[in-house]
Amino acid sequence: MRKQPSLHPPLFSPDDDIDALIAEGLADFDAGRYIDGEEAFRQLQAHSESQRRANSGRTEDTHS
User: How many Å apart are CA 22 and CA 18, to the nearest integer?
Assistant: First the structure.
């Protein structure tokens, strides 16, 4: 049986996209656009808390 083609493109093409992401990250680093690990975790935690607050009114009962 033939596999049906996906309607969605892959998230990454292994060579081009990853190379582009690495180049972008190196350019940011060279330009001084980076944060330390503690700041990254603070930003991630703040984002997670914001998402939880935004989604707190959208709970659905899936255990019925």
Answer: 6
